[in-house]
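Here is the promised in-class demo. Please do not try to memorize the tokens; focus on the logic of going from shape to residues.
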């Protein structure tokens, strides 16, 4: 059975992908540092402090998170990941996205040819409901369907 959630659009777009869920904060720099330095095309998460994601491929998944944490470089990391085609299919936040991560997603949307929809404020019910491997469809206007 599918369930629909509505959030706020940070970077527009549509996609369908399998969910990868973290219930802890997402440290953008720690998660992408090793794949960016080594050229890992699977883009395995290098943040050993996030057991939900550590060593799991981030590329092409619907990344479902509460929020980002960590470095002030987070926005630039997101932009760079998109510029190199290493980004998740979408980033979906239960809470409000921080301004640095939002700026990176917006710049990537404007300055690259890549698409990475970003929706925030989906609510705790979204994060409680979604499980790894579920199918996520992001529609226009901030609608996220989980099945």
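The designed amino acids, position by position:
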């Amino acid at each position: 059975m599918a369930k629909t959630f509505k959030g706020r659009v940070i970077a527009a777009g549509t996609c369908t992908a399998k969910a990868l869920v973290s219930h802890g904060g997402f440290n953008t720099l720690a998660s992408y540092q090793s794949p960016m330095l080594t050229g890992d095309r699977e883009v395995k998460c290098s943040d050993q402090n996030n057991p939900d994601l550590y060593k799991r491929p981030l590329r092409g998944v619907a990344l479902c998170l509460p929020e980002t944490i960590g470095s002030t470089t987070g926005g630039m990391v997101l932009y760079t990941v998109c510029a190199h085609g290493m980004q998740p299919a979408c980033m979906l936040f239960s809470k409000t996205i921080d301004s640095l991560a939002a700026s990176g997603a917006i710049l990537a949307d404007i300055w690259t040819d890549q698409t990475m929809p970003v929706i925030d404020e989906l609510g705790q019910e979204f994060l409680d409901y979604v499980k790894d491997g579920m199918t996520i469809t992001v529609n226009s206007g901030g609608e996220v369907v989980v099945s």
